[in-house]
Amino acid sequence: MRLIIFGCLGMLGKQYCYFACIKVSNAAAATVLEYIMPVLIIMWYCMREKRLPRGKEVFCAVFAIVGTVLIATAGDLTSLALPPEALFWGLLSAFACALYTISPVGLILKYSAPVVVGWGMFLGSLVLMPVTLMTTFTGVVDTNTLLAFAYVVVFGTILSFVFYLGGVAYVSPSRGSIISALEPVSSVIFSFLLFSMTFGMYELTGMALIIIATVVAGIK
Q1: Rounded CA gap, 67 and 187, in Å?
Q2: pLDDT per position as a tens digit, 117-164
Q3: Percentage of the chain with pLDDT > 70?
Q4: By C-alpha distance, which of 22, 46, 20, 43 is closest to 32?
Q5: Using N-to-C axis directions, what is the helix angle for 113-133 and 160-168, rounded to 10°?
Q6: Statement: the pTM of the whole predicted model exceeds 0.85
Q7: Where are the alpha helices (DSSP H) in 103-181?
Q8: CA angle at residue 28 from 57 to 43, to 5 degrees?
């Protein structure tokens, strides 16, 4: 049952809602909304343990979220004028992301991350199979499309899920979710190295906040 919840609600929900949010808005908005996840995870553990958030948890979550917002918007919050559909899918993505972070920890410690992620992806695909069979395909299939699709599947989904959930199994989910905020930092670095993009004060400040949150989250 835990594997079904992880695959069909957590993994499938996270991926589908995230891409649906990008479709109706943009990648920056989808990323910002998804990184509400650390707050949701901290709230869950506070309710389960019947306690208030610890000072370090609040500090790290706030720094991670603010840093993500600065990187995604370059300090211009007016660029996030979101349609209702984007807000809907983005918040669902954050909830699903929190669920897939929390739910499989025990399974991963018992069976390993690749096994759990593989079965989770398989179960999630079964849910969408009837929809896929009834949907008319639109688009162009060529070499570039297939390579881009393969990249999203292998690097953007399989490896990222295995590495992330493998790490969460050894640190707390709340700590792991904060460390994962390094994702937008890596996107800035690769954009600079591969596309020679330049970044201003807001992006660099956002990177600094996320790195600080990551370091503090790693301190016991």
Answers
A1: 13
A2: 999 999 999 999 998 888 888 888 899 999 999 998 999 888 988 898
A3: 93
A4: 22
A5: 130
A6: no
A7: 105-111, 113-133, 143-153, 160-168, 173-179
A8: 25
3-state secondary structure of 1: coil
Cα angle 41-47-52, degrees, rounded to a multiple of 5: 90
Q: Are 100 and 10 in contact (CB under 8 A)?
A: yes
Instruction: Name the one residue in this structure whose structure tokens are 């670095």.
Output: 189
Burial 81-114 (b: 16+ CB within 10 A, else e): ebeeebbbbbbbbbbbbbbbbbbbbebbeeeebe
DSSP notation for 60-116: HHHHHHHHHHHHHHTT-GGGG---HHHHHHHHHHHHHHHHHHHTTHHHHHHH-HHHH
- For residue 106, CA distances in Å to 3, 99, 188 come to 10, 13, 33
Q: Is 194 helix (H, G, I), strand (E, B) or coil?
A: helix
The rounded distance, in Å, linking the Cα atoms of 11 and 156 is 13
201's tokens: 């004060």
